[in-house]
TrEMBL record:
This is Transmembrane protein 161A. Belongs to the TMEM161 family. It is a multi-pass membrane protein. It is found in: Membrane. Residues 1-23 form the signal peptide. Pfam families: Tmemb_161AB. Keywords: Glycoprotein, Membrane, Signal, Transmembrane, Transmembrane helix.
Amino acid sequence: MAVMGIQMVVTLLMASIMQRVSPHYSFARWLLCNGSLFRYKHPTEDELRTLAGKQKPKAKRERRTNGAVDEKPLTVPRDIDLHLDTEPITTIDALVLRYFLEYQWFIDFALYSTFIYLFTEAYYCLVDAQNEINIGVLWCLMSIIFSIKVLFTVMKHYFRSEEGGERSVCLIFAFLFLLIAMIVMIVRDEYLEFGLEPGLASICNNLEIFMAKQGWQWSIPFAKLAFKIALVALCSFLGACLTFPGLRLAQTHLDALKMAADRPMLQILLHTSFLPPVIVVVMWIRPITRDFLLNAPMGGKSVELMSNSAYNTFRLWIIVILCLLRFSLTRFHLQAYLGLADRWVDQMKREAGRISMLEIQRKISRIFCYLTVVALQYLAPIILTLHCVFMLKSQGGYSWGLYPEAPGFTPVIDSPTIQPPLPSSEEEDDSEDVQAAVEQIMIALTTLRGLFTHLFFQGLFSFLTWWVSVCQIVTSLFGLYFHQYLGTS
């Protein structure tokens, strides 16, 4: 408590609020059940019979060789005049949605994590807290881990599919992103300014000094190679996890544009919300952005439009604004997904033959049941990108440009402690052991803080932010091509 100070108090308070308030009021639940989203109700068997012109249809029967009788499901013509009714989504309706509890917990946790991070930023702005751990960074790190876990959970659902086509798509994109990551690793910092090489060199040098003091041998080339291999494997894994979110984003984007055909301003916002990954990728290409802004040619002379630090701040703010823009259009994309039920019925009417009543009901119900899966696919990449930017700012030594940045955290190891008198020597020994353990933990934290420098965090989280956007660009562009030229209309 002495080390964390007020940040620990706010963290415990926020955790208590999250535990007690979420069952009664949840932002994630409100996002789906605030009355702005409408679901399509599947027709009953009586309604389908009436539309088919048969009040009491009989199911067909087939006799087996052993004398048993099988009843086939009731069928209706595909070209019946079927119109689906709509109703607002309620909390009772949302409880039957697939992965609803995971969706609710994840979105609420990300929201509280953002609140804690904003509080710590304001706290560091008002108070000189050099000797305190930035606990908002820990919450952001947990949000990043949970974002990847949620995406992996959704991907596992596709792997368990009986058809197996989704599994093949994930594996193909995993190998594709593995190849792209290997190519990116050999690109020099003059073109992609992540700073991976300087950051990796700094941590390897610190590790070499630390290992030498411990009397251990350390191979810097092997350490760099192992780190790059691990990073490439992580890139391939993230690419596989972001495959279907990108494909789904392309489909909902096209459907949302059709819904907003008579609203040009909304169409502009939808197009703008589709471009953030492209803008993020371009902002780390040095010849296009930084070199141009730092040495802009004007009238045969080079004019510096902004400094290096100003450009870093500008890049952080642009990514945050783009994430908020995409988040603000969540409802339109989710409603576009729910509209798949009505479009499927229109497509069914243009086909010949008959279809079973059960299949109609199952198809329409399934679209609604997977609403939270689509919401996770849409929101998880946004949360992942946003919290990577928060980590980049705090651990990379960048600034929001609103206040002077405090120096990094330096744990106080030799701080005085007040020990109450103990009645027995055994308790004194136990107290000394606890104090020694605490000192060892603080020394370990200080050592880790010295090993992982700002250069390393700049390179790591810059690359992760950039890579998430690359995965979204590749998968969403493929999704646009598929749904426009290869998919059924």
